């Protein structure tokens, strides 16, 4: 019997219907029902819908057409099949480790299509990517300049700049404060001089990344405008044109009830003015803007699906105990940057027509109360053996989670498209 005090929310169900297909009781992903996919992969499993990824890429590419190139940020989901899909769509790849470099190359990226960003690049990593070929290295500090000098081989590089606080944006601030990322904007002249003193480094651009999980189009546009202003300043200082203006990533997706998606129409409306500001500066007229989204492209396409292992009630609270939890999906547990823990959208993928009016707390099998994937969420009446799916799970899922904690098995992963299941091996 439904509890009349429970507020029925169809947030997850509406999102599932928008992104995928609902046919009868079943949620379909990539042309197959989730329960059919799980019957082949086993439970738990990450399932990625290739068509959803392609739609996200093509929509963003249309907005940025003629203004910026898209580089997929591999940290969001470094599965080779996922990287390959975006390369097929025309993207370059932004990496933050030698492991991601190898994944990008294995997925079919050409070396000149790869940008290497991130703090703390080791000498061996820098040497390896320069030996293998790299489009650009984005320098984050004086130590990296010294390492590139020691390697001694010619390399194209951009300076990563930590912008002033006025342009910090997003749910997680990547700049505008004390940070390990890049050179502070107020120290920019010294950073330019340090690079100029190393003959094997060709300074070709800048990289500005103010924040991540940005849903405010106006804030995103303003951060891009500031990056163009900084690029003009750098170009004038060095007295020659720049080739690259990396505007960063950070484009967000709606996780929680009440979140509004990033308004791409508003972004599109601002593009002509941003492009004109670049063309108006002679030293930037031939520059290429770069945007490096990851979550925005991959996040909506993914589901984390697990079978319910047990159902129990404790002091009036109904718990659904899954076969996997925060060891597979730390972000959904709220322990990856959330201060106030809110629920990711959750559905029962084989009971899509049932009313989600039964309050439940969804937990994993780990020996900690932190292992909670949803708190007092509305789901249908479910039993052991039924499936639960966490949506918006295509980015920062398995590889951002403590997979070895308590030594449970890793989940299966698969890219599904046009009824074909491509298992992902790591």
From TrEMBL:
KW Lyase (keyword) present: yes
Domain Orn/DAP/Arg decarboxylase 2 C-terminal: 46-394
InterPro entries: Ala_racemase/Decarboxylase_C, DAP_deCOOHase_LysA, De-COase2_C, De-COase2_CS, De-COase2_N, Orn/DAP/Arg_de-COase, PLP-binding_barrel
Cofactor dependence: pyridoxal 5'-phosphate
Keywords: Decarboxylase, Lyase, Pyridoxal phosphate
One Pfam family it belongs to: Orn_DAP_Arg_deC
Ranges where the Orn/DAP/Arg decarboxylase 2 N-terminal domain occurs: 54-298
UniProt-listed SUPFAM superfamilies: Alanine racemase C-terminal domain-like, PLP-binding barrel
Modified residues (N6-(pyridoxal phosphate)lysine): 75
Domain of life: Bacteria
Entry's Gene Ontology molecular function annotations: diaminopimelate decarboxylase activity
GO BP terms: lysine biosynthetic process via diaminopimelate
Active site (UniProt): 367
Assigned protein family: Belongs to the Orn/Lys/Arg decarboxylase class-II family.
Name of protein: Diaminopimelate decarboxylase
């Amino acid at each position: 019997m439904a509890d009349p005090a429970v507020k029925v929310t169809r947030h997850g169900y509406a999102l599932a219907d928008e992104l995928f297909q609902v046919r009868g009781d079943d949620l379909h992903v990539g042309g197959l029902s989730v329960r059919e996919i799980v019957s082949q992969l086993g439970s738990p499993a990450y399932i990625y819908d290739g068509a959803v990824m392609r739609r996200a890429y093509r929509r963003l590419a249309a907005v940025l057409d003629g203004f910026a190139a898209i580089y997929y940020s591999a940290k969001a989901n470094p599965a080779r099949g996922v990287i390959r899909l975006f390369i097929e769509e025309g993207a370059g790849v932004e990496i933050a480790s030698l492991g991601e470099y190898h994944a990008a190359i294995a997925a079919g990226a050409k070396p000149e299509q790869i940008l290497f960003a991130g703090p703390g690049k080791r000498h061996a990593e820098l040497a390896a990517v320069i030996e293998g070929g790299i489009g650009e290295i984005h320098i984050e500090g004086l130590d990296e300049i010294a390492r590139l000098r020691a390697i001694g081989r010619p390399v194209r590089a951009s300076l990563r700049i930590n912008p002033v606080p006025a342009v910090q944006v997003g749910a997680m601030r990547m700049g505008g404060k004390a940070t390990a990322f890049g050179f502070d904007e107020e120290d920019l002249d010294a950073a330019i001089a340090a690079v100029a003193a190393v003959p094997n480094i060709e300074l070709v651009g800048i990289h500005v990344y103010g924040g991540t999980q940005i849903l405010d189009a106006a804030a995103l546009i303003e951060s891009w405008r500031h990056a163009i202003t900084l690029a003009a300043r750098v170009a004038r200082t060095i007295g020659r044109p720049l080739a690259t203006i990396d505007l960063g990533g950070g484009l967000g997706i709606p996780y929680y009830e009440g979140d509004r998606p990033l308004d791409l129409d508003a972004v599109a409306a601002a593009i002509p003015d941003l492009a004109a500001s670049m063309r108006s500066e002679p030293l930037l007229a031939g520059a290429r803007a770069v945007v490096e989204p990851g979550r925005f492209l991959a996040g909506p396409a993914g589901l984390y699906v697990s079978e319910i292992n047990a159902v129990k009630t404790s002091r009036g609270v109904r718990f659904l105990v899954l076969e996997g939890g925060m060891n597979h999906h730390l972000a959904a547990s709220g322990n990856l940057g959330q201060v106030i823990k809110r629920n990711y959208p959750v559905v029962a993928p084989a009971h899509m027509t049932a009313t989600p009016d039964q309050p439940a707390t969804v937990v994993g099998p780990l020996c900690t109360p932190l292992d909670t994937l949803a708190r007092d969420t509305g789901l249908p009446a479910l039993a052991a053996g039924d499936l639960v799916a966490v949506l918006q799970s295509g980015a920062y899922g398995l590889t951002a989670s403590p997979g070895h904690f308590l030594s449970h098995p890793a989940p299966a992963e698969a890219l599904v498209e046009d009824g074909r299941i491509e298992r992902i091996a790591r």
